[in-house]
Automatic annotation (TrEMBL):
This is 16S rRNA (Cytosine967-C5)-methyltransferase. Pfam families: Methyltr_RsmB-F, RsmF-B_ferredox. S-adenosyl-L-methionine binds at D266, D307. Signal peptide: none annotated.
Length: 407
C-alpha cells in the first residue's frame, strides 16, 4: 500500500468506530476484509488509528467545540500535517484521500497559528469533560503531566521469566534475532530486575525464540512492579483472585521460583482460557479453577492478589479507545464491583496473610478510596500503598498491601 492509501484506510477504520466500541476488533475485521495488506501496512495503519484515538479531541481542534465532529479525516489530516505536507498525500489519486478543501486548508492554518494551548482543558488534554477534575484531585501538581502522558505511545516491556532464563541470556537471544532491548526500572517503587524495554525490532518479538520458548513475557514494567510489591515467596500458597489472562499469576509464579502453589480464579473462567498454554510455555505451575473458590479454602492463603476490574486509565496510552467510552455511570459500576471483589477476596486470606488489591487505574475513586471503604471492621490493616503513573516510567498502577490480623 502507498503511504496515502494507508491514511485512507485509517480514515475508514476511524469512521467505522464509535466511542464505546473496542478498536482492536475493528482492526481485526478490517484485516480480514483487506487481506492484500501486508504486515507493515497493518502495523502502520494501526499506529495511525491509535495515534488518532489518543488525541481524538485535540486533533480536531479548532473544529466543533467538543471536538467530536468530522470523524477520521480531520484527525488523520492533522496528524499528516505534523509530519509533512498533507497536500502531497491527500491527492485524490487511486486509494488516496480526496484533495483538501479550502475549509480544511483554513483550519490547518489556524491550528498551526493558534496551537491547542487555548483550547478548553479536557479538549487540550484529550479526555472526556468530566475527567480532568478527578485527575487533578488524585495527582495534584502532577495532574497535568499525568493527563498529558496518556496522549503518547507506550513502550513495549518484557518480563524475563526467571523459571527459564536470566536477563542477560534473554537479551542476547533477542538481539541475535533483531529484537533489541535494555533493562528498565520505575522511578520509585519495588525493584524490577527482570524488566526489559524493547528499543527496536519489536515487530519480530512474537516470532523470536526467547518469546516462543517462554523466556520472556510481554508485561509493562509497572505491572511487574505491582506483582513484585506483593512479595510472593517460594513455598507460599497464593490465590490470584482476578486472574484473567494470567499476567500477574505468571509473574507471581516466577517470583516463587516454581516452589509453592498458585491458584487462579476469575468470576468468568472463560477469561482464563489463555492461561494454561501461557503457563506451559513459561514452565509455571498454575491451577485455574473452573468455578468459584470453594468455601473450604477460606482463610487458607498466604497471599491473595486481587487485580480488580477497573477503568484501565493507567493503560489508556495502549487502549485509548477506552477513555472515550468511559462515563461517570461506568465509574460508579466499577467501584461497586471493586468493593465486592475486595470483600470476597479477603475471606481467603489466612490470619497473618496478605491481601493485595491492585488496579491499573489512575483514579483515586478506584484505588485508595476503595481500600479505605473496606478497612473499617475488616480485620485487616493497611501495610503499604504503591501509586505509579506514566511519569514513573510505566503504565499507571495502584496496589495496596493489607495484612490480616490474628484469628
Ligand atoms: C484487570 S483484569 C485481570 C488481569 C490479570 N490479572 C492479568 O494480570 O493479566 C480483571 C479480571 O477480573 C475479573 N473479575 C471481574 N469481576 C470479578 C469478581 N467479582 N470476582 C473475580 N474476578 C472478577 C474479570 O473477569 C477480569 O478478568
Amino acid at each position: 500500500m502507498t503511504p496515502a492509501a494507508r491514511l485512507q484506510a485509517a480514515i475508514d477504520i476511524l469512521d467505522a468506530w464509535a466511542p464505546g466500541r473496542p478498536m482492536d476488533r475493528l482492526l481485526v475485521s478490517w484485516r480480514r476484509a483487506n487481506r492484500y495488506a501486508g504486515s507493515g501496512d497493518r502495523a502502520a495503519i494501526a499506529d495511525l488509528v491509535y495515534d488518532a484515538l489518543r488525541r481524538w479531541r485535540s486533533l480536531a481542534w479548532p473544529a466543533a467545540g467538543e471536538g467530536a465532529g468530522d470523524g477520521g479525516r480531520a484527525r488523520i489530516l492533522a496528524l499528516a500535517a505534523e509530519t509533512g505536507d498533507p497536500e502531497a498525500l491527500f491527492s485524490g489519486a487511486r486509494h488516496a484521500p480526496a484533495p483538501l478543501t479550502e475549509h480544511e486548508r483554513e483550519r490547518l492554518a489556524e491550528r498551526a497559528e493558534r496551537g491547542v494551548i487555548e483550547a478548553p482543558d479536557a479538549l487540550r488534554l484529550d479526555l472526556p469533560d468530566w475527567l480532568p477534575p478527578l485527575f487533578r484531585a488524585a495527582h495534584g501538581p502532577n495532574a497535568e503531566a499525568v493527563m498529558d502522558s496518556l496522549r503518547r505511545r507506550a513502550p513495549v516491556d518484557l518480563r524475563v521469566n526467571r523459571l527459564k532464563a536470566r536477563p542477560e541470556q534473554a537479551l542476547a537471544s533477542l538481539a541475535a534475532q533483531g529484537v533489541l532491548a535494555a533493562p528498565v526500572s520505575i522511578a520509585s517503587g519495588p525493584a524490577t530486575p527482570d524488566a526489559l524495554r524493547v528499543t527496536s525490532g519489536g515487530r519480530g518479538l512474537k516470532s523470536a525464540d526467547a518469546y516462543l520458548q517462554g523466556w520472556v513475557e510481554v508485561q509493562d514494567v509497572a505491572s511487574q512492579a505491582a506483582a513484585a510489591f506483593a512479595g510472593a515467596r517460594p513455598g507460599e500458597r497464593v490465590l490470584d483472585y482476578c486472574a484473567g489472562g494470567g499476567g500477574k499469576a505468571l509473574a507471581l509464579a516466577a517470583a516463587m521460583g516454581g516452589e509453592g502453589e498458585v491458584i487462579a480464579h476469575d468470576v468468568d473462567p472463560a477469561r482464563m482460557q489463555d492461561l494454561p498454554p501461557r503457563a506451559a510455555r513459561a514452565g509455571a505451575r498454575i491451577a485455574p479453577l473452573p468455578g468459584p473458590v470453594p468455601d473450604s479454602a477460606k482463610a487458607s492463603f498466604d497471599l491473595v492478589f486481587a487485580d480488580a476490574p477497573c477503568s484501565g486509565s493507567g493503560a489508556w496510552r495502549r487502549n485509548p479507545d477506552a477513555k472515550w467510552g468511559f462515563s461517570p455511570e461506568g465509574l460508579a459500576r466499577l467501584t461497586r464491583v471493586q468493593s465486592q471483589v475486595l470483600a470476597s477476596a479477603a475471606a481467603f486470606v489466612r490470619p497473618g496473610g496478605r491481601l493485595v488489591y491492585a488496579t491499573c487505574s489512575l483514579l483515586e475513586e478506584e484505588n485508595g478510596a476503595r481500600v479505605r471503604a473496606f478497612l473499617p471492621g475488616s480485620g485487616f490493616e493497611l501495610s503499604e500503598e504503591l501509586r505509579l503513573t506514566p511519569l514513573d516510567g510505566g503504565d499507571g498502577f495502584y496496589a495496596a498491601r493489607l495484612v490480616r490480623g490474628p484469628a
